[in-house]
Amino acid sequence: MSTTTISSATATASTTAAATHQLYHYTPSTVVPIICAGIFGASAFLHLFQMIRKRTWFYTAFTVGSFMMTIGYAARYLSAKSPSKIPLYAAQSLFIILPPSLYAATMYMIFGRLVLFVNNPSASLIRPTRVTKIFVCGDVIAFLLQAGGGGMMSSGGQAALGQKVIIAGLLFQLLFFGFFLVIALTFRRRMANSPFSNSVGSAATKHSWQSLLLLLLIGAGLIIGRCLFRVVEFGMGMDGFLMSKEVFMYIGDTAPMLFVQVMFHGIHAGDVFTSEFVQTKGKGMGMESESYVPLNEMR
Known about the structure:
It contains ten helices and no strands. It is mainly α.
């Protein structure tokens, strides 16, 4: 009787352990996620403050993404406390995977305004108003694919399909971001040889447009690197090497995305574009002419 009881208890414990490790292939930390939530949260509130103070409403997507990332790591903390609960696991996964698409949306909008600001739309491979429309639309599709895939992964029967959908969303994001990087680099090269290069800006602005463009290029590079990491990670599968160690996620995703959030505090479009430009020419990208911005209106 005693032997039977012990065997039953052992079997129950083994079943519980197996259920716990179905989602995580390691013992998830409860300390690191709460630290990350605190840092991302502080950054999110600072982005909100900067956006309101500088009236740069095109930072809305970036700011929302910052708060989503905060929620993601808070959910990861709760998930680490209850590692066998699928809803918590799905929530942390979605809220950490999705924000870079929102960061990208704001970066596209900044670039479109930057092209208009330097008074040389011809330096861009695509007209500035179309840059925003084309890339944000692509970003929305990538966002929806990743969100849909994450939802499928939270249900056991569609986990494999959900993983493939997420990979498709990441690859779609990589395609658009790679194209954006080509356009931004081409614009930078053309402006370097243009007489307009040093004719824009004033002593009233805190940073140069060149600094803002460099920020976009670095941000794009970091998000592309993060997407590549996630594609490889999901491609290896739930039992793959990258998902077997928690540290890989913090190195391949958390660190670069935190760097993106923080560096966008240091160089803000509101400190590059004049207030007149932000409130008129840059607002809604609704200019009466896409090929000319009077320089005297930016001084």
